[in-house]
């Protein structure tokens, strides 16, 4: 059965933060098998991303269940820094209760912090100061100063680490060997051409 990633959509979603991950899941070019990539929004109305793309969601959040999914992806957006996003953190809680992974980057980590979903899990964000400003956050002792962190079923990353976010998420899902993941980051982050043949073997 083809696995499915559900991508949260909301206005000003930061396209650049999740693009690498979506390409790898959708094409399966280095992981062997393509995934279904399904977009989800709170309503059926089109959403305009930070990059200006207008996207019509595939489904609405009210119809999303963890049992129908293998991954929930939460990107940054202006709403997170405005204190919004509770509908999505509620969804994330349902996913985590069902042991379905959640991958959050940039502002979405602030939303998870406010919801208390990072308190007992290793995690990262844009900076420690960023998450400690969030009301309800109690996870300072679990903060890791790294580009991307896997803490059980939660993957987190800062806004400057879309490649590491993709790598960490693929690793958490068991989609590629460590050799392939290292080569992926070397090629797409460090522009290390010597790692390219490893990716071609995976492809």
UniProtKB/TrEMBL annotation:
<dbReference type="InterPro" id="IPR002818">
    <property type="entry name" value="DJ-1/PfpI"/>
</dbReference>
<feature type="domain" description="DJ-1/PfpI">
    <location>
        <begin position="6"/>
        <end position="170"/>
    </location>
</feature>
<protein>
    <submittedName>
        <fullName>DJ-1/PfpI family protein</fullName>
    </submittedName>
</protein>
<dbReference type="Pfam" id="PF01965">
    <property type="entry name" value="DJ-1_PfpI"/>
</dbReference>
<dbReference type="InterPro" id="IPR029062">
    <property type="entry name" value="Class_I_gatase-like"/>
</dbReference>
């Amino acid at each position: 059965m083809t696995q499915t990633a559900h991508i949260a959509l909301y206005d000003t979603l930061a396209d650049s933060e999740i693009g690498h991950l979506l390409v790898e899941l959708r094409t399966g070019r280095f992981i062997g098998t393509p995934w279904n990539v399904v977009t989800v929004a709170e309503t059926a109305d089109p959403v305009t991303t930070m990059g200006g793309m207008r996207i019509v969601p595939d489904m609405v959040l009210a119809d999303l269940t963890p049992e129908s999914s293998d991954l929930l992806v939460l990107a940054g957006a202006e709403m997170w820094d405005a204190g919004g996003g509770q509908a999505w953190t509620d969804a994330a809680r349902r996913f985590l209760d069902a042991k379905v992974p959640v991958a959050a980057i940039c502002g979405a980590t602030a939303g998870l912090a406010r919801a208390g979903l990072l308190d007992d899990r290793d995690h990262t964000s844009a900076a420690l100061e960023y998450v400690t400003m969030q009301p309800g956050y109690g996870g300072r002792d679990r903060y890791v100063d790294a580009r991307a962190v896997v803490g059980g079923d939660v993957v987190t990353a800062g806004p400057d680490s879309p490649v590491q976010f993709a790598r960490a998420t693929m690793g958490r899902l068991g989609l590629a060997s460590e050799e392939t993941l290292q080569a992926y980051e070397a090629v797409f982050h460090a522009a290390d051409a010597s790692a390219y043949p490893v990716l071609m073997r995976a492809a």
